[in-house]
Specification:
Layout lengths: L1 E3 L2 H5 L7 E6 L5 H13 L2 E6 L9 H6 L4 H8 L6 E3 L3 H4 L19 H4 L3 H16 L3 E5 L3 H13 L5 E5 L19 H22 L4 H14 L3 E9 L13 E11 L2 E11 L11
Parallel strand pairs: 1-4, 2-3, 2-5, 3-4, 5-6
Antiparallel strand pairs: 7-8, 8-9
Helix pairs in contact: 7-8, 9-10
Length: 288
Amino acid sequence: MIIAHTLAELAAIDRGTRRAVVMTMGALHEGHLALVRRAREVADQVIVTVYVNPLQFDERADYDRYPRTLEADCALLEPLGVEAVFAPADHTMYPAGEPTVSVSAGVIGRVLEGAARPGHFDGVVTVVAKLLHLTQPDVAVFGAKDAQQVIAVRALVRDLNFPVEIATAATVRDDDGLARSSRNVFLSDAERTQALALSRALAASQSAAHRGAALDDAVFAGRAILDAAEGVVLDYYSALDPADATEVQGDYRGDVVIAVAARVGRTRLIDNVTTRIGPPDAAEGELP
């Protein structure tokens, strides 16, 4: 497995017939490895990027404490047959510091997760655009857990005509239902138990939708669990149009992403499910 740190080292990697890229910030867990396995299914060459992107953090302290575990990450990736890891330094990605020209996520970057973290999605789509340009993949694989990010990346590719396919992999959960996240390491045992309210709430909303509940009733079923949960400070619990991340309500029918963000202790967690508001036998699952 090649570990490239510079643009020259990345450019020197021989290209496969079909190249997939998986973009990460490191501190890899089973959720990331599921993305790599999905990439292996759709391509004969897989490149994983490991880069903690400063542009997508709204708090410097959060950026500074984000775990950096490149050696351990590479040890997890090599058995999966990853051909290369691209792990650039900040000066490689942003030679002049914060870039003068960047990409805007538009309205997608100003709602919900974007409203809670101003500038976050602008930073995400800027680094994604750079990494797509540098790695030149045929397909890029993202996790369904970051639903709004997937929506923003798909809009980036569509609106700026990137010649790349965007694929997703389902959210990986622990046996107790908690979505895998690099931030879970910051939870104490008690906080981890409290955090299970997020997945319970989403399951309640999904179950209500499956039984034929109206959108507002499905959202209420989950919101009630979070309102009663000890130690959970809710940022939002909202139903989104999967096409553009706008909030939907009232008599809306069709596919919907129910997304949650909350703080448990000092750790901010996100999660989501996708379901259908409509007939009781409608399909449900992760973000398409």
